[in-house]
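Structure, all two chains, one model.
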Amino acid sequence: MEILALLGDGMLIALQPLNLLLIIAGVTVGLFIGAMPGLGSVNGVAILLPITFLVPPSGAIIFLAAIYYGAMYGGAISSVTLGIPGASTAVATTFDGRPMALKGQASLALVTAAIASFIGGSVANIIFTGFAPVLASVALSFGPPEIFALMLLAFATFVGLGGEDIPKTILSICLGLVLGAIGFDQISGAPRLVLFDINAFLQGIGFLVLAIGVYGIGEMLWTIEQTRGEVENNTPKMTARGMASDARTALREGWKGTAIGSFLGFFVGILPAAGATPASLMSYGVAKMTSRNPEKFGRGSVDGVAAPEAANNSASTGSMLPMLTLGIPGSPTTAILLGGMVIWGLVPGPRLFVDETEFVWGLIGSFYISNMAALFINLAFIPVFIWMLRMPFTILAPMIFVLSIVGGYAATRDMFDIWLILIFGFGALVLRRLDYPLAPAVLAIVLGPIAEPTLRQSLLLSSGDPMIFFTRPVAGPITVIAIILILLPALKLFRRKKATPAIGE
Amino acid sequence: MSITKRALLQLSCAGLLAITPMAAMAQEWEPRRPIDFVIMAGPGGGADQIARFIQSVAEQHDMTSRPLVPNNKGGGSGAEALLHVNAASDPDHTLLVTLNSFFTTPLRQANLGIDIQTFTPIAMMGVDPFVLWMHVDSGITDFEGFLAQARAMNGEFVMGGTGTGQEDSIVIAFMSGAYGLDIKYIPYDGGGAVARDLAGQQIMATVNNPAEAKGFYEAGNFVPLLAFSDERLPAYPDVPTIRELGHEFSYYNQRAVVGAPGMSDEAAAYYRDLFTKVYESEEWQGYLQSESLAPLWMDADGQRAYWNTQVESHRVLLSRLDG
């Protein structure tokens, strides 16, 4: 029970007045940074890093970790209320959060997001506290073939779903993969698909640019077209009782998604190549696949909000693990935190847990406190965001447009991205009219750039022999499951043709 | 077109300065907006660590009136960063943190149209040596053991690196050539990822900067076998250099700050002064020591001359690599 004693000490450090103040400030700042389209935890942590020189290192990292946490909660807010992903980690939240808001269930969606985030964060904290050193070695056992197998599994969860038009899903994935391949090739360093010789394409297409285009602009255009601007405003007023009943509904209908997101998110988060964005997308896919009502996903499923939100919080804690135990960042945000630790004179890596006990456990203790603080601060702000939703559509629509453009520009400060956002917005409208699902394209642009290099690295390792994905002890089972999932719809079709009735799904 | 505009603007600025009685004005150039601090590599690697360290030193001592904003553009072995800085709309507020890809990428990709001599030399913060590492569990403790195993595995010995044409691949190519080794080379997107996969034993050996491998070395996971520096590294006194083994070879990664082409003399003077202060700070000197970097301070003319010799020597090294 030495761990509990250390954790207790750590919590006491986190509860010191200065640190507690930093947690509350960090979570609040993070919440708004996360809610601002375009700005995510990466930007928040990078912008505020210099401020942390004013406080001791343990306070500094607690502050930054609190921002990280707050941003994970905040990302859901604009995903639900405006339909623009607040941060890349919250894109999967728009898939069902936005439809819920349109159905007048915005408060239920936000409460679900908050509770799922809290549970995801708590589960991750407990696993982290108990098993950090063991899990670090698990993370290291994932080489290129294992990571590729995992990516294959992620794609499989999106393809192998019954009920949807599979050829269209595959086409959408391919579109995302092509967009993700634009720019410099990581393996050879050669430029690819530099369309019209525009140098800006060399940098590749930012995932957030696509997401804002598709969900910010595209969604708004779709709504305008469908309703001729006369959107019925059916968002009810918030009451304390309403929120309590929302919380009960969220737990009742979203427990499964929350559970999947909490565990899967943590696991994907500790893998070095991944991070919270792939974690949330994968959890969404798995939640949909295992759900009894997969047809509700994309149309306002509570599970569909709970899974990615639990996952992104869980993964953000998870990605701290390789950073602290190995000195390897698990996500872009932790890469910046790592830089901060070097600056504060700490050496991240395997010795940190031994040499800097107070720092490490103070930080872990602060995860628990931050998670709690984020839940309450978030719940307290929900009525404000709901009030925003009650504005007439004629005010809301231009606001979404402006936020999309400003958010898209803020991320890279490049005008080129604005044109891309507009092109993607109109492109999304066309595809949507033709009934193409867009979520798989978004998934592909995130996972493609992880899958492609790991595929090529694996094949280099095996001198071109694809059996490497089947013979390795961890990669093998994952690859087999992925392939079964991809073939599942075909198998179902086959069985149906053989006229075997009454087979439960 | 933009060059003409810029020249006109400079002319008019010069004109304004001429009428102002204060001749000292030029001395007092200060950044008027946040400085775009472009890094030729992705987050987490050696170059990124250094850029963020420099930023923090400047921030901590309040050395700049406007902040340095790190901007990772690691795509295409730094080509992305070079293009970005080459076409900077505001050269007085655009700086580049460089690696040796500053020399190799324009050589390998001539179609980019980058002439590094148009860039503005600012400061040489130090040079980073390379060391050959293996995992402790391999049981190999010296370079002889490495050679024996690499030869025994006959083309199946796997090393990781940051890509063909990158710094570590040049070192590996020289070593393979000198000792007749056949090595399977897996490219990764940064030195941090390379070290991670050595720690997980996905690959068998790496050529990493000490800064990237230090954590694993101190935890007892990595063994240093050979240094590619001129002399033994103070932090690794028992590790022989390749020179001691009779090869006239050493290789360092430059850690330099460079200004955008067309940066005004006043701005360049300001930044040189700024980075001299950073260089002389206790923190930076401590960093050089703890991360085994070697100092190589030089003035602007010295840097230009250094660029020339590096371009020439890399031309030779790369031709060997491709041939």
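The radius of gyration of chain A is 22 Å.
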